[in-house]
Amino acid sequence: MADVNRGNRPLSPHLSIYRPQLTSITSILTRITGNAMLISSLLIVWWFLAAASGPAYFAIVNGFLTSWFGDLIMFFSVLGLWYHSLAGIRHLIWDNAKMMDIPTAEKLGWACIGGSVLLTLITVIVV
Q1: Which of 18, 19, 76, 105 has a 20 to 30 A CA-CA distance from 124?
Q2: How many other β-carbons are positioned within 10 Å of the β-carbon of residue 57?
């Protein structure tokens, strides 16, 4: 028989007391950067197709990608590329059942974030 007191039960307070861990945030960021890299790669393909189409269309696309907005998109694409690469290395380490304790996993998460920012700045300055 169905429970007639179902509506009287308290709701789980998980949303009000849950604090996201760094490992879950970095995992979500890995998925976001993977999808963002797909979009930026489509922009680069668009640029190549415009170059093959002719000088008039290429000037439009190149003007967009070299504008401040295009530079901003490409900057965050480089950041996403570095972050996604470092997070992939972190997952390879975890796949070998290494460094999986919570303090070390959090250090690896901060290393991915800090390393991606540092490598992005180096890439932007050098290139």
Answers
A1: 105
A2: 13
Which CATH architecture is the domain 20-126 placed in?
A: Up-down Bundle (1.20)
Predicted structure pTM score: 0.81
Q: Is 76 exposed, middle or buried (0-12, 13-18, 19+ CB in 10 A)?
A: middle
Binding residues for heme: 84
Q: Can you give the residue ranges of every domain in the chain?
A: 20-126
Measured between alpha carbons, how far is 111 from 90 in angstroms, rounded to an integer? 9
The first and second tokens of residue 34, run together, are: 């993977």
CA distance 93 to 71: 33
pLDDT of residue 44: 95
- Binding site listing: 84
DSSP class of 11: P
